[in-house]
Write a structure and sequence with these properties.
The complex is a heterodimer.
Chain A: H1 5-16, E1 24-27, E2 46-49, E3 53-56, E4 79-85, H2 88-96, E5 102-106, E6 109-111, E7 116-117, H3 132-138, E8 141-145, E9 157-158, E10 173-175, E11 179-184, E12 187-194, H4 199-204, E13 210-219
Chain B: H1 15-19, E1 27-30, H2 40-49, E2 54-57, H3 69-73, E3 77-82, H4 89-96, E4 101-104, H5 107-119, E5 124-126, E6 140-143, E7 146-151, E8 156-167, E9 172-173, H6 182-187, E10 189-200, E11 219-222
Parallel strand pairs in B: 1-2, 1-8, 2-3, 3-4, 8-10, 10-11
Antiparallel strand pairs in B: 5-7, 6-7, 8-9
Classes of the chains: A alpha/beta, B alpha/beta.
Amino acid sequence: MGMGIDLRNRMARRAAKEIEPGMIVNLGIGIPSLVSNHIPAVMQVMFQAENGVLGMGESPEEGEENPMLCNAAGFPVSIVPGASYFDSATAFGIIRSGNLDITILGGLEVSEQGDLANWIVPGKRVPGIGGAMELAQKAKKVIVLMSHVNKHGAPKILPECQLPLTAKACVDIIITDRAVIEVTKKGLLLKEVMAPYTVDDVIKNTAAELKLSDQVTTLS
Amino acid sequence: MQKSKQKPVNKVGTIHEALSYIHDGSTLMFGGFGGIGNPPTLIDAILEKGTKDLTLIGNDAAFPDIGIGRIVSRGLVKKMIASHIGSNPVAGQLMTDGKLEVEFSPQGTLAERIRAGGVGLKGILVDVGLGSMVEEGKQKVTVDGKTCILEKPLRAEVSIVYAKKADTFGNLVYDTSARNTSPLVAMAGDYTIAEVEEIVPSGELDPECVVTPGIFVDMIIQSKGVNWTWAWE
C-alpha cells in the first residue's frame, strides 16, 4: 500500500498488544507478518502456518536456512521448542476446529458489520483465497491490518463491502495507519487514533458510521 | 478412477518411464506450497517434453520461475484448481486474458477435497465459504440444522510429489514444511509418482515415521534437487 516501514511497524506493534502469552496465532502475508517481531520469545506464543508448522520461531541467520522450512509466504523460519510439522489437512483441521486464538490478516475492505473482503478485485487483481476464508471464519479473534484508505484515497471501511466477501461478520478489530477500531454488536467503535491523525480526520476518511469510545486515545 | 493393476514391490523407475504417464490434456495433481515441495526433476522433464493442455490441481501457482509456476508460465496449462495464484503474476495475466481457467477453492477445503478423493469419500461438508462466491452453484446439505456446502472430491490421472526419502516399496518421509499437501496428493492420483532426494532399501525406514504408506505410490524417481532460486535468496 506504499506505507513506509515505520508506519507498518507501528501497526504491527499495536496488533502485537492483542496477543497474550501462550496463544496460538496465525499471521497473514504482508504487514501481519511483521507482528511476530514485536512478540518476545518469553511469551511462548505458538505461531501456526497453514503450510504445516506449529511453533515457528524467528528467521534463521543467513546461510543457516533450510529452504524446505518456511512460513506460508515462503520465507525461511526456525522452530521453537514444542514445534510440530503436519500436512495441509491437519493445518486446516487446527484452524477449522477453532484452535486458533488470533489470526491477523490483510484487508481490502471491512464493513460496519465486520464483513471482510480480501481475496479478489474482479477483473484487476486475482490473488485468490488461500487460507483466508478458514482463518477469517474460524479463528476466535480476527484482526485486520490495512491502510485506512486505498491508493486513490477512498475509504476502505464501508457500510457494506463492495468487493466479493471473504467471510461475513468475522472481524473483531481493525488496525490501520490512522486508527484502531473495534467491531461491536452496536457498530464500529473508534478507540484509538494514530498521531498525527485526529478523530475528525479518521471520521472523514471512514465511510461507515463510527461511534466514539468514551476516551479515544492517541498513539504516537 | 480405481487403481487396478497389482503394483511392483520395487517401484524405482526412470524419468523417461515417469513421463510416459503424462500426456497432452492430462489431469495432473501436484504436491507443494509456494513451490516448496514441488518436484523439480519431474517439472523439468515436463517442461522439456512440452506437455500441454494440462489440468493442474494443487495448492497454488507458485512463482513464475519456481516450481510448478514454470509450467503455468510457459502456457502449458488449460485449467487450474487451486487456492490462490497471487504469487505468480503470469498466471494472473493468463487468467485475465482468458487463456487459463482457474477454479478457486479455500485452501483447507481444497486439501480436504484432495484427501476425500484419495481415501474414497464421495464429498465433504463444510461451512467455510458460506456467504461468499465459493458457495455459488453448489449443493447445500443441512446437518443438525446447520447449512453446509457439499464440496466434491478431487482425483487426478497422475499425482506428482516430492519427498525427502523413499524406500523401494514407496513409503515416504517428507522434509519439514515441504510435507504440506503432498501426503494428500499422493493418495489422490490414479498413478502417483514420488520424486525423492534419497532412495533406501525396504526395511530402512522406521514404520512409525512413515508419513505416506507405500501402497499409494506407483513409481519412485531419484531427484536431481531443486534447480531454481528461491524468492528470498
